[in-house]
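Example (one chain per record):
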Amino acid sequence: MRTLTLLGASAALVLATGCASMDDTQRRTATGAGIGALAGAVIGSATGGSAGTGAVVGAGVGALGTYIWSQNMERQKRDMEQATQGTGIAVTQTQDNQLKLDIPSDISFAVGRSDIQGNFAPVLDRFAEGLRNHPNTDVRIVGHTDNTGSDAVNNPLSLERAASTRNYLTGRGIDGRRIAIDGMGERQPIATNDTTEGRSRNRRVEIFVGERPRS
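Predicted structure:
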């Protein structure tokens, strides 16, 4: 246990002194590695192994679990901001370093439909180009609905919208194995469902892109 305490203190010291000279991306990765190291040490000690060995394994897990915000990701964000200007699509960087596109239904899908509308296609074309240029990224597409109708209708509809978006991207040469999809139905509203405007905002598709640290 004394070894574990010293290891924790050492990791904290490394993070405190090293982070001063790191950029934001390096700092996030180092923090993940440090947390992983401490977790690994606990696992190693609790299972009768070496705390030091556990720390090495944990550091790798912590670092690999972190998306990075690289110059490529920043470039993709600027490109998508330009491509979606004036459309109502929100382009943001999430706290865990993913690029997020929040696409309302008046851009992406008609009410009760899962086929992609014409004004959504140029946005996806530009998005696919960015994915082709940056193959070290993962994509997650999540479909949403308002609360009109039952779960028996909304749950599959939200998933079908995500699947249609994925299929459009694979049709533009993007490897489908890079793309995960999910449908949340009405379970994650971002506005009230008591108004027409609120329901329209809740009928949406979200696209997330994360860049993996290179090994």
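Caption: Helices lie at 2-18, 24-46, 51-64, 71-83, 105-108, 121-133, 151-170, 196-202.
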